[in-house]
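Worked example
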Amino acid sequence: MPDLVSSALQVQAPATLSIDGGFGAWRALTRAATSGIRGSLSYSGVSPRLSWTLMDREQPEQALRQPPAGTLPPVVEALTQAVDLGIAIVADGVVATVNRAFLGLFGAQQAWNTLVGEPVATLSEREPFCAAASLWAARHDGYGRRHRCTVGDRVIEGRWHALPSDDPPLLAVIARDLTNEVRVRGRLRQHNRALAELVATKTELVSALLHELRTPLTSALGIVDLLPEGSGDPLLDEALPMVARSLHRINDITTQIAAISGIESGAVPMEQRQFDVPALLAEVAAAHGATVRAQASAPIAVGDRARLGEVFNRLIAAVRAVGGSADEIAAELLDDRWRIALKLPPQQATDRLFTAADSGGNATALMLARAVVGRHGGTVGVETVTGTPYLVVRLPRGGPSQP
């Protein structure tokens, strides 16, 4: 492949040189464009034919320092102007071309070709481009790095890239507007902080309520335990056992709520041990007279087996209490997540799941399930398959998370 630039400099102006080929011709075209040789691009068949006409060589150094408009290949000019990203191409420290999107990032009103031939050092010192002085200076650093700067009320991010070129070096900066992204991230951080404050407030509220409940509850349970079994008054003898059962029920609920709060906040640790999910489900199902339909020779999972066993035990009891069918537990491994499904009764109100009067006292079952499964990186929810609602636990095979 002949050197187009060297050949051009050996002939008298005006002279026209042509070259055929693919990538080699492209490199020659690029070098010729930045060496002050005017030219045009034409196609012959499937291969591009590059035709370049030698400039007037009376001022070769000036042409090299300040490439006039049109010295870049027409294809490069067209692509630069067609894309939505801001692009500026620099040849040996001089602006070779910029597109309208690049000027729009800076709010510049002048035509794009008015900057062609201007040294970058000069451009970086005048308005509005001086606001991105760090971006212009970054062309001497490692290529591909992100450089962010603020121009007015906009946040611009640019990256410098080296383009194929022999001499002089060609650099391109690709810039984009990050203003909306930065604003969204800022709002997201604010929402996350607000959510963290709400979670902390909830934890403090639950802890305060439990503390206030336990003190009188402990006293009441102590008094009930000291009462005689019979008082001689039939009405009192009937009421006292009822009061004792209610107090013990309140004590159990407060203990469960304290445990759930500790799991959600991370105060209660989760074990990370390997266990067989179908085997665990089979043990829990056997205690309830149910069966498990699961994959054979399924992979081992990692997690807190005891906590998960308590979750599935509570969920089976809760589903049966609301009239669901927990005679069979379906478990399947989808990608890296287990899907465990329990059939719910038709027309089940998902917003009052296990909290209705006929739920059999299983109001905390769903709270416990969401806390434990959530710590394992999973979810608990209601899904409908062919019109039938299911309570579905999705559990990843990996270990529990540590807040």
Notes: Confidence is low (pLDDT under 50) at residues 1-70. The first strand starts at residue 16 and ends at 20. The radius of gyration is 37 Å.
